[in-house]
Amino acid sequence: MDSRAFVADGHDTRKLQLLRRELNEQLRRFSRRDGQSGSLRLLCECGRCREEIDVATERFERANANGGRWFVKDGHPVGAATPQATTR
């Protein structure tokens, strides 16, 4: 496996954002099924990195219910027209 950093173009970035959102929603479903609450360990949804972030479960659900904001690590870029919910 090539360990060099992946550099995505705009189209790839959008695909990666959508894939990570899908995976994060699946992680939430698993945590709910297992009776876990409080905090989720999610994948950063910037579409350009492989980092993880911790997000309060309630915050994740509120953001998804109100227009689906992207969860990104502080300082990570997201498209200018895309709503963003950072980990703060």
Task: Describe the structure concisely.
The protein has 88 residues and is α+β, with helices and mostly antiparallel strands.
Tell me the number of structural domains: 1
Radius of gyration (Å) = 13 Å
Oligomer: single chain
Sheet with most strands: strand arrangement: 1-2
**What is the global morphology?**
elongated
**What share of residues are in beta strands?**
15-25%
> What's the order of the H and E elements?
HEEHEE
Structural class by sheet pairing and helices: alpha+beta
Number of strands: 4
Main sheet properties: 2 strands, antiparallel
Q: Could you estimate the helical fraction of the residues in percent?
A: 25-40%
Total helical segments: 2
Question: What would the keywords be for this entry?
Answer:
elongated, 88 residues, two-stranded antiparallel ribbon, 2 helices, 38% helix
What does this structure look like?
The protein is an alpha+beta fold and 88 residues long. The chain has one domain (10-86). Helix content is 38%, strand content 18%. It is built from two helices and four strands. It has a two-stranded antiparallel sheet with strand order 1-2. It has a two-stranded parallel sheet with strand order 3-4. The model is unreliable at 1-6 (pLDDT under 50).
